[in-house]
Structure formats: C-alpha cells, structure tokens
Write a structure and sequence with these properties.
Length: 152
C-alpha cells in the first residue's frame, strides 16, 4: 500500500512539475511579447519626439521668415512714404500697393495662427498618446505581477 501511495505522490509531483513548466513557458512568451511591445513603444516615442523636433524647427523657420517679411514690410513702407513726399500724383497707385500689402500681412497672420494651432493640437494629441502608453505599460507591469507603483 505504501508503494501505491508513493507512486501516486510521484505521479502527482510529476504532473505538478509539468504544469509549472508549461506555465513558466507561457509567462516567458508573455514577457517576450511585452518586451516587444515596449520596444515598439520606444520606437514610436522616438519617432514622435523626432516629429516634435522637426515641427519645432519648422516653427522657428516660420518665425524667421515672418521676421524677414516684417523687415521687408518696414522697408517697403519707408519707400512708400518717400513716394508720397516725392510725387503726389502717385498716391492712388501707392494706396493700391498698400492694400495688397495689408492683404498679404493678413494672409501671413492667418497662416501663422493656423500653423500655431496645428502645433498646439499636435502637442495635445502627442501628450494624450504618451499618457495612454504610460497606462498600457502600467497595465502590462501589473499583469506580470511586478507592480512597482500600486494605484493610489
């Protein structure tokens, strides 16, 4: 009777060991998948940062161009003032040029405001995406049982 009990105990132990090995294999696969997801998220985060850097550089370039246009506008206005004092007969022509210049300035202002708005929207969506990434990472860490920051 002891040998049957010992035999049953050995079979049960072997079955438990096989089950534990299967579970360990499953956990290893999940850990590899999680690491792969983390690597993908890191790549996406780097790509997002690169886009932000490019957008920042683009905004800087636009600011420089606006400054250049502003300098050109200042120069143009000075030239118009000389024309006013030099030739009264050219006033109507000068008014037309000024109106075109104002339209150009309004267009530049609208373009700048639109690009500024797009940049702000991009910042918001990127911030939201990064927050979702953080939540996914927290969830994955909790799923692995290694929760370094328990929810408060």
């Amino acid at each position: 009777m002891n040998s049957k009990l010992l035999s049953g105990l050995l079979v049960s132990t072997a079955s438990y060991a096989e089950s534990a090995n299967r579970r360990l294999d499953e956990l290893t696969i999940k850990q590899d998948r999680t690491q792969s997801h983390l690597d993908e998220l890191t790549i996406k985060q780097d790509r997002t940062q690169s886009h932000l850097d490019q957008l920042g550089a683009h905004v800087d370039q636009i600011g420089e161009k606006v400054d250049q246009v502003s300098d050109q506008v200042d120069s143009f206005i000075t030239h118009i003032q000389r024309l006013f004092t030099k030739a009264g007969s050219e006033i109507e022509e000068t008014k037309a040029r000024t109106e075109r210049l104002e339209a150009l300035m309004l267009k530049l202002d609208r373009n700048f405001d639109e690009q500024k708005s797009q940049f702000q929207e991009f910042q918001l969506t990127t911030g939201a995406a990064l927050e979702r990434i953080d939540r996914v990472l927290d969830y994955l860490l909790r799923q692995q049982g290694g929760n370094p920051n328990p929810p408060s």
